[in-house]
Amino acid sequence: MNKLLRASALAALGACALVQAHAQGQADFPTRPIRIVVPFAAGGATDVIARVVGQKMSDQLGQPVVVDNKAGANGNIGAVAVARAAPDGYTILMATSSHAINQTLYRKLDYSLTKDFAALSNLASVPLVLVVNPGVPARSAAEFAAYAKGQGDRLNFASGGTGTAAHLAGEQFNTLVGTRMLHVPYKGGALAQTDLIGGQVQAMFANLPEVLSQVQAGKLRPLALTGKARRANLPEVPTFAEAGYPQMDARSWFGLFAPAGTPAPVVARLSASIAQAVADPAVQARLKELGADAIGDTHEAFQPFVVQEVKRWGALVERSGATVD
Length: 325
Prior knowledge:
Mean pLDDT: 90
Structural class: alpha/beta
Number of helices: 11
Low-confidence stretches: 15-25
CATH architecture of the largest domain: 3-Layer(aba) Sandwich
């Protein structure tokens, strides 16, 4: 064999070895801890659900699954960090319906939810509940609407950030009822809840898991919630449809995403692990306890759902006139 042929043969063998090693690495995935970036403050619904599912994923994958909170810019800081991370499956994003909203809310955004990520699984969805500080003299959505009208722009409603589902629900309520409540954004639902209990703000269209314990403790008063049916853990609270506002039907969802370019076998492995984790009876019970509806679908189902959500929320953002830049 001449030198040229020998060199070509060695190069081919080397390439095959690299391909086999790469394939073997994917087959062995994961071999080290996986990091879930939660782009909101600790203690909110996004953080709690990520930790519940992440713990069971760790059991499924045989590696630690750790949560890293990177709050800021309505979830965009954490999203950009994951979009720019190595597409190897070891850094994934806990995104929410807020990220679908951001695609229209921000005219300039450093990532695309549909192009820069591979959707792994939709973990759960939750209804929004209108809660008020007990000092507010309203015990129904209709009474609250009348009270808010009388307050003009002196009544504030909180949310976990500009452009969140909670924010847009408040703006939608303003439009439907003719109120002029002022929006006060926080860096996460837990922080908003603290000021709501303290009376610094008067109302909030909150993700149910964020406020359920405070409602049950009597620290917040629930008036109505989104969805088609009442909740077993809050049977006395009517739906907005029952209260006369059927247009108030927004829900928040929580899903895991990997950076675009993550190898298909790794995406499949993560997606399957998440689905198995969500299907676990203990996880199902915990999500139900939190007030969340478990989903745990696959990449094939979640990816087109995300595309549709970006369109749906985009239309609502445009109708509301909300913007941040």
